[in-house]
Amino acid sequence: MKQYKYFALALVVIIVIIVSLLSDPASESPTSIGPTATSSDTEVNKNLVQADGDVKVHMIDIGQGDSLLIQSNKDTILIDGGNKGKGDEVLDYLEKNNVTKLTAVISTHPDADHIGGLAEIIRGIPVQAVYAPRVTHTTEAYKQFLLSVKERALKIKIAKNGVQIPTKTAGLSLDFIGPTKEYSQSDLNDWSAVLKMTHGTKKFLFTGDAETPAEKDMLAFNLLEPVDVLKVSHHGAAEASNTDYLQKLQPKLAGISVGKGNRYDHPTTETLKRLKKVGATIYRTDQHGHIVFISNGKNIIVKVER
Questions:
Q1: Which of 27, 155, 233, 245 could disulfide-pair with 23, CB 3.0 to 4.6 Å?
Q2: Domains of the chain from N-terminus onward
Q3: How buried is residue 198: exposed, middle or buried, by Cβ count under 10 Å (0-12/13-18/19+)?
Protein backbone atom coordinates (compact mmCIF):
# COMPACT_ATOMS: atom_id res chain seq x y z
CA MET A 1 0.00 0.00 0.00
CA LYS A 2 2.87 2.40 0.84
CA GLN A 3 4.50 1.66 -2.53
CA TYR A 4 1.21 2.40 -4.31
CA LYS A 5 0.83 5.72 -2.48
CA TYR A 6 4.44 6.66 -3.34
CA PHE A 7 3.94 5.87 -7.04
CA ALA A 8 0.65 7.79 -7.14
CA LEU A 9 2.27 10.81 -5.48
CA ALA A 10 5.23 10.70 -7.92
CA LEU A 11 2.84 10.53 -10.90
CA VAL A 12 0.89 13.54 -9.62
CA VAL A 13 4.11 15.54 -9.18
CA ILE A 14 5.28 14.76 -12.73
CA ILE A 15 1.88 15.62 -14.22
CA VAL A 16 1.92 18.95 -12.35
CA ILE A 17 5.39 19.70 -13.78
CA ILE A 18 4.25 18.77 -17.30
CA VAL A 19 1.17 20.98 -17.13
CA SER A 20 3.28 23.90 -15.89
CA LEU A 21 5.82 23.50 -18.71
CA LEU A 22 3.78 22.61 -21.77
CA SER A 23 2.60 25.32 -24.13
CA ASP A 24 1.39 25.41 -27.73
CA PRO A 25 3.83 27.43 -29.87
CA ALA A 26 2.55 30.51 -31.62
CA SER A 27 1.98 30.09 -35.33
CA GLU A 28 4.96 31.11 -37.47
CA SER A 29 5.17 32.35 -41.03
CA PRO A 30 6.61 29.58 -43.24
CA THR A 31 10.07 30.02 -44.69
CA SER A 32 10.20 30.12 -48.49
CA ILE A 33 11.66 26.92 -49.96
CA GLY A 34 12.68 25.67 -53.36
CA PRO A 35 11.09 22.92 -55.49
CA THR A 36 11.17 19.25 -54.56
CA ALA A 37 14.54 17.58 -55.13
CA THR A 38 14.85 15.19 -58.06
CA SER A 39 18.50 14.14 -57.73
CA SER A 40 20.99 13.73 -54.89
CA ASP A 41 24.44 14.18 -56.50
CA THR A 42 25.90 12.47 -53.43
CA GLU A 43 29.46 11.48 -52.67
CA VAL A 44 31.49 10.51 -49.59
CA ASN A 45 34.22 12.93 -48.55
CA LYS A 46 36.16 12.58 -45.28
CA ASN A 47 37.91 15.96 -45.48
CA LEU A 48 35.14 18.36 -46.39
CA VAL A 49 35.11 21.92 -45.01
CA GLN A 50 31.71 23.56 -44.51
CA ALA A 51 31.05 26.54 -46.77
CA ASP A 52 28.93 29.59 -45.91
CA GLY A 53 25.22 28.90 -46.37
CA ASP A 54 25.51 25.14 -45.91
CA VAL A 55 23.37 23.18 -43.46
CA LYS A 56 24.93 20.23 -41.68
CA VAL A 57 22.99 17.36 -40.17
CA HIS A 58 25.15 15.46 -37.69
CA MET A 59 24.18 11.95 -36.68
CA ILE A 60 26.20 11.76 -33.47
CA ASP A 61 27.61 8.33 -32.61
CA ILE A 62 26.44 7.78 -29.02
CA GLY A 63 25.92 4.02 -29.19
CA GLN A 64 22.41 2.56 -28.95
CA GLY A 65 20.34 5.72 -28.95
CA ASP A 66 19.65 8.90 -30.88
CA SER A 67 21.20 12.35 -30.92
CA LEU A 68 21.22 14.56 -34.02
CA LEU A 69 22.34 18.12 -34.61
CA ILE A 70 21.04 20.44 -37.35
CA GLN A 71 23.66 23.18 -37.78
CA SER A 72 23.87 26.27 -39.93
CA ASN A 73 25.60 29.61 -39.39
CA LYS A 74 22.43 30.94 -37.73
CA ASP A 75 20.57 27.92 -36.33
CA THR A 76 21.52 24.98 -34.10
CA ILE A 77 18.82 22.42 -33.31
CA LEU A 78 19.46 19.27 -31.26
CA ILE A 79 17.16 16.27 -31.63
CA ASP A 80 17.42 13.94 -28.60
CA GLY A 81 20.39 13.34 -26.33
CA GLY A 82 21.01 9.61 -26.10
CA ASN A 83 20.98 7.56 -22.90
CA LYS A 84 21.66 8.80 -19.38
CA GLY A 85 25.36 9.59 -19.13
CA LYS A 86 25.64 10.42 -22.83
CA GLY A 87 24.86 14.09 -22.32
CA ASP A 88 28.50 14.96 -21.64
CA GLU A 89 29.55 13.18 -24.84
CA VAL A 90 27.04 15.21 -26.82
CA LEU A 91 28.21 18.43 -25.15
CA ASP A 92 31.82 17.58 -26.07
CA TYR A 93 30.74 16.98 -29.67
CA LEU A 94 28.91 20.32 -29.74
CA GLU A 95 31.98 22.12 -28.41
CA LYS A 96 34.23 20.50 -31.02
CA ASN A 97 31.85 21.74 -33.70
CA ASN A 98 31.82 25.31 -32.32
CA VAL A 99 28.24 25.15 -31.02
CA THR A 100 27.94 27.56 -28.09
CA LYS A 101 24.14 27.65 -27.82
CA LEU A 102 21.13 25.72 -29.08
CA THR A 103 18.30 27.61 -30.73
CA ALA A 104 16.05 24.61 -30.09
CA VAL A 105 16.09 21.21 -28.39
CA ILE A 106 13.65 18.50 -29.48
CA SER A 107 12.77 15.52 -27.33
CA THR A 108 11.12 13.12 -29.76
CA HIS A 109 9.65 10.90 -27.00
CA PRO A 110 10.46 9.82 -23.42
CA ASP A 111 12.38 6.58 -24.09
CA ALA A 112 15.62 6.58 -22.10
CA ASP A 113 17.91 6.14 -25.12
CA HIS A 114 16.54 9.40 -26.55
CA ILE A 115 15.79 11.55 -23.50
CA GLY A 116 18.35 10.24 -21.01
CA GLY A 117 21.11 12.74 -21.82
CA LEU A 118 18.93 15.80 -22.42
CA ALA A 119 18.93 17.05 -18.81
CA GLU A 120 22.74 17.21 -18.82
CA ILE A 121 22.69 19.00 -22.17
CA ILE A 122 20.05 21.56 -21.21
CA ARG A 123 21.92 22.27 -17.98
CA GLY A 124 25.25 22.45 -19.82
CA ILE A 125 24.59 24.85 -22.72
CA PRO A 126 22.27 27.84 -23.30
CA VAL A 127 18.98 26.73 -24.88
CA GLN A 128 16.40 29.08 -26.39
CA ALA A 129 13.43 26.72 -26.94
CA VAL A 130 12.35 23.16 -26.14
CA TYR A 131 9.87 21.03 -28.09
CA ALA A 132 8.32 17.70 -27.09
CA PRO A 133 5.08 15.78 -27.72
CA ARG A 134 2.36 16.04 -25.07
CA VAL A 135 2.89 12.65 -23.44
CA THR A 136 3.30 11.84 -19.74
CA HIS A 137 5.87 9.45 -18.35
CA THR A 138 7.18 8.56 -14.88
CA THR A 139 10.84 7.59 -15.29
CA GLU A 140 13.64 9.41 -13.50
CA ALA A 141 15.15 10.39 -16.88
CA TYR A 142 11.91 12.07 -17.90
CA LYS A 143 11.59 13.79 -14.55
CA GLN A 144 15.13 15.17 -14.84
CA PHE A 145 14.38 16.42 -18.36
CA LEU A 146 11.34 18.31 -17.07
CA LEU A 147 13.26 19.72 -14.12
CA SER A 148 16.12 20.90 -16.35
CA VAL A 149 13.63 22.77 -18.54
CA LYS A 150 12.07 24.34 -15.46
CA GLU A 151 15.50 25.36 -14.12
CA ARG A 152 16.14 27.21 -17.39
CA ALA A 153 12.81 29.03 -16.97
CA LEU A 154 11.61 27.60 -20.30
CA LYS A 155 8.24 26.27 -21.43
CA ILE A 156 7.92 23.11 -23.50
CA LYS A 157 6.35 23.85 -26.87
CA ILE A 158 4.16 21.03 -28.14
CA ALA A 159 5.67 19.02 -31.01
CA LYS A 160 2.84 17.84 -33.24
CA ASN A 161 1.69 17.90 -36.85
CA GLY A 162 1.31 21.49 -38.07
CA VAL A 163 3.87 23.11 -35.75
CA GLN A 164 6.86 24.88 -37.32
CA ILE A 165 10.18 25.75 -35.68
CA PRO A 166 11.20 29.28 -36.71
CA THR A 167 14.63 29.57 -38.35
CA LYS A 168 16.96 32.42 -39.33
CA THR A 169 18.66 30.54 -42.16
CA ALA A 170 17.47 31.50 -45.64
CA GLY A 171 15.87 28.57 -47.46
CA LEU A 172 15.63 26.40 -44.31
CA SER A 173 12.28 25.27 -42.89
CA LEU A 174 11.54 22.85 -40.06
CA ASP A 175 8.03 21.43 -39.83
CA PHE A 176 6.63 18.76 -37.52
CA ILE A 177 4.43 16.24 -39.32
CA GLY A 178 3.99 13.91 -36.34
CA PRO A 179 2.53 12.89 -34.08
CA THR A 180 -0.68 13.28 -36.03
CA LYS A 181 -2.93 12.37 -33.08
CA GLU A 182 -2.89 11.10 -29.51
CA TYR A 183 -1.83 7.50 -28.91
CA SER A 184 -1.98 5.26 -25.87
CA GLN A 185 0.40 6.37 -23.12
CA SER A 186 1.99 2.91 -23.40
CA ASP A 187 2.83 3.44 -27.10
CA LEU A 188 5.68 5.89 -26.57
CA ASN A 189 7.31 5.18 -29.93
CA ASP A 190 4.25 6.28 -31.90
CA TRP A 191 4.18 9.56 -29.96
CA SER A 192 7.52 10.39 -31.58
CA ALA A 193 7.96 13.94 -32.87
CA VAL A 194 8.60 13.56 -36.61
CA LEU A 195 10.36 16.55 -38.17
CA LYS A 196 10.63 17.41 -41.87
CA MET A 197 13.54 19.65 -42.82
CA THR A 198 13.66 21.43 -46.18
CA HIS A 199 16.83 23.19 -47.31
CA GLY A 200 16.51 24.61 -50.79
CA THR A 201 15.44 21.63 -52.91
CA LYS A 202 16.70 19.05 -50.42
CA LYS A 203 14.45 17.29 -47.93
CA PHE A 204 15.26 15.40 -44.73
CA LEU A 205 12.97 13.43 -42.41
CA PHE A 206 13.79 12.79 -38.73
CA THR A 207 11.53 10.14 -37.26
CA GLY A 208 12.46 9.35 -33.64
CA ASP A 209 11.13 5.83 -32.97
CA ALA A 210 7.84 6.12 -34.90
CA GLU A 211 6.55 2.66 -35.74
CA THR A 212 3.82 1.10 -37.92
CA PRO A 213 0.72 2.88 -36.50
CA ALA A 214 2.37 6.32 -36.74
CA GLU A 215 3.66 5.58 -40.25
CA LYS A 216 0.17 4.53 -41.39
CA ASP A 217 -1.34 7.68 -39.90
CA MET A 218 1.17 9.94 -41.66
CA LEU A 219 0.36 8.14 -44.92
CA ALA A 220 -3.39 8.49 -44.29
CA PHE A 221 -2.99 12.24 -43.62
CA ASN A 222 -0.98 12.57 -46.86
CA LEU A 223 1.96 14.11 -45.00
CA LEU A 224 4.75 12.16 -46.66
CA GLU A 225 6.69 12.98 -49.83
CA PRO A 226 10.00 11.88 -51.38
CA VAL A 227 13.04 12.81 -49.28
CA ASP A 228 16.75 12.89 -49.90
CA VAL A 229 17.78 11.82 -46.38
CA LEU A 230 15.83 9.62 -43.97
CA LYS A 231 16.77 9.17 -40.32
CA VAL A 232 15.66 5.55 -40.06
CA SER A 233 13.16 5.09 -37.25
CA HIS A 234 13.79 3.05 -34.10
CA HIS A 235 17.40 2.20 -34.99
CA GLY A 236 16.29 -0.03 -37.86
CA ALA A 237 13.74 -2.12 -35.94
CA ALA A 238 11.50 -4.42 -37.99
CA GLU A 239 8.36 -2.72 -36.61
CA ALA A 240 9.21 0.50 -38.49
CA SER A 241 10.25 1.54 -42.02
CA ASN A 242 7.41 -0.41 -43.60
CA THR A 243 7.17 -1.04 -47.35
CA ASP A 244 4.32 1.40 -48.15
CA TYR A 245 5.98 4.10 -46.05
CA LEU A 246 9.35 3.72 -47.79
CA GLN A 247 7.72 3.54 -51.23
CA LYS A 248 6.21 6.96 -50.53
CA LEU A 249 9.43 8.47 -49.17
CA GLN A 250 11.86 6.98 -51.73
CA PRO A 251 14.89 8.03 -49.63
CA LYS A 252 18.17 8.34 -51.48
CA LEU A 253 20.24 8.26 -48.28
CA ALA A 254 19.36 6.53 -45.00
CA GLY A 255 21.08 7.08 -41.65
CA ILE A 256 20.77 4.59 -38.80
CA SER A 257 21.82 5.52 -35.27
CA VAL A 258 22.65 2.22 -33.61
CA GLY A 259 25.06 0.69 -31.09
CA LYS A 260 27.62 -1.89 -32.17
CA GLY A 261 26.62 -5.41 -31.12
CA ASN A 262 23.41 -4.20 -29.47
CA ARG A 263 21.14 -6.78 -27.80
CA TYR A 264 18.18 -5.89 -30.03
CA ASP A 265 19.92 -6.97 -33.26
CA HIS A 266 19.28 -3.53 -34.72
CA PRO A 267 19.20 -2.81 -37.58
CA THR A 268 17.16 -5.86 -38.57
CA THR A 269 17.67 -7.75 -41.80
CA GLU A 270 14.07 -7.01 -42.80
CA THR A 271 14.53 -3.24 -42.52
CA LEU A 272 17.85 -3.25 -44.37
CA LYS A 273 16.25 -5.22 -47.22
CA ARG A 274 13.33 -2.79 -47.44
CA LEU A 275 15.71 0.19 -47.55
CA LYS A 276 17.85 -1.40 -50.25
CA LYS A 277 14.76 -2.26 -52.27
CA VAL A 278 13.90 1.45 -52.62
CA GLY A 279 17.49 2.22 -53.58
CA ALA A 280 18.66 3.94 -50.39
CA THR A 281 22.38 4.18 -49.64
CA ILE A 282 22.71 3.23 -45.97
CA TYR A 283 24.99 4.80 -43.36
CA ARG A 284 25.25 3.43 -39.80
CA THR A 285 26.89 4.90 -36.72
CA ASP A 286 28.06 1.44 -35.60
CA GLN A 287 30.03 1.14 -38.84
CA HIS A 288 30.82 4.74 -39.81
CA GLY A 289 30.99 6.55 -36.43
CA HIS A 290 29.77 10.15 -36.61
CA ILE A 291 27.92 10.81 -39.89
CA VAL A 292 27.39 14.30 -41.32
CA PHE A 293 25.05 15.08 -44.21
CA ILE A 294 25.98 18.47 -45.68
CA SER A 295 23.49 20.32 -47.89
CA ASN A 296 24.08 23.45 -49.93
CA GLY A 297 20.41 23.47 -50.92
CA LYS A 298 21.06 21.76 -54.24
CA ASN A 299 23.44 18.89 -53.47
CA ILE A 300 24.26 16.71 -50.47
CA ILE A 301 27.70 15.45 -49.49
CA VAL A 302 28.23 12.84 -46.78
CA LYS A 303 31.11 13.04 -44.34
CA VAL A 304 31.90 9.98 -42.21
CA GLU A 305 34.25 9.49 -39.29
CA ARG A 306 35.48 6.09 -40.49
A1: 155
A2: 2-23+45-304 (3.60.15.10)
A3: buried
